[in-house]
Amino acid sequence: MLLPVIAVFLTSTHQNSVVSADGLQLTWGSEFVPVYGRVLTEKAGFSQTITAGTMALNSTVMALGFSLGKCLLSLLSAYALVYFRLRFASFLFWLIFASLLLPIETRILPSFQVVHTLGLLNTYTGLVLPLLAAAMGTFFFRQFFKSVPDELIEAARIDGAGPLRFLVDILVPVSLPMILALFAVTFVLGWNQYLWPLMVSTTGEGYFTLVRGIERFGTATNYGMALAVLAMLPPAIVVFLLQKWLVKGLVGEQK
């Protein structure tokens, strides 16, 4: 499993002639290229308007906005559906759940039209906002909240806890494994988004993400391979750091 990753890394740190002549040569002499420092900080030889550092920043903003926004909206919508007496709550839940049938790829043109009309093209808001609806997250939180013991709810009422305090002091702590699990999954999904950033970043390269940059500049050079390595690192780090919480959240274990 690690062999392709190692091959990409070695390709990114060697000149093209060294890589393509007789396969990968595991030498670190004069052929080694300090490519990562140049890709992250310099425009010359890579792009005239943007560096990989800027693209990494754009990817980070998009992934964090994507994951944090989905977690917050999922938590609040499930909280409202379970603990507030809403008319047609079940119908509203299934209406939200039905939105899984309409991923961004199926509504790409009307979504683009709305973003264009609102003047959000080539902005961070345009990158993140149309992707925040999270039916699956709402479903998981709703099912989890329904499993919270009634005694806990009664104890909170006796202590005089209002809706906001009940949410912050009780539900959020016991939901922490699920929140972190959802954060890890949605961070990876947000980081790897390709089609929507391709549509939104219409003028210039200022809002290119790393995935978008790989498509634009290709992987035929060691610079492109360096982009591929940089694009793999943050999702791997997030999953590695949150793997314990990811397992707990997936199996529904409470803290």
TrEMBL record:
The chain crosses the membrane at residues 61-81, 88-104, 124-145, 166-191, 223-242. Gene3D superfamilies: MetI-like. InterPro entries: MetI-like, MetI-like_sf. Keywords: Cell inner membrane, Cell membrane, Membrane, Transmembrane, Transmembrane helix, Transport. It is a multi-pass membrane protein. Pfam families: BPD_transp_1. Its main location: membrane. Signal peptide: none annotated. The keyword Cell inner membrane applies. Residues 56-242 form the ABC transmembrane type-1 domain. The keyword Transmembrane applies. It comes from the Bacteria. It is found in: Cell inner membrane; Cell membrane. Part of the ABC transporter complex UgpBAEC involved in sn-glycerol-3-phosphate (G3P) import. Probably responsible for the translocation of the substrate across the membrane. Belongs to the binding-protein-dependent transport system permease family. The complex is composed of two ATP-binding proteins (UgpC), two transmembrane proteins (UgpA and UgpE) and a solute-binding protein (UgpB). This is sn-glycerol-3-phosphate transport system permease protein UgpE.
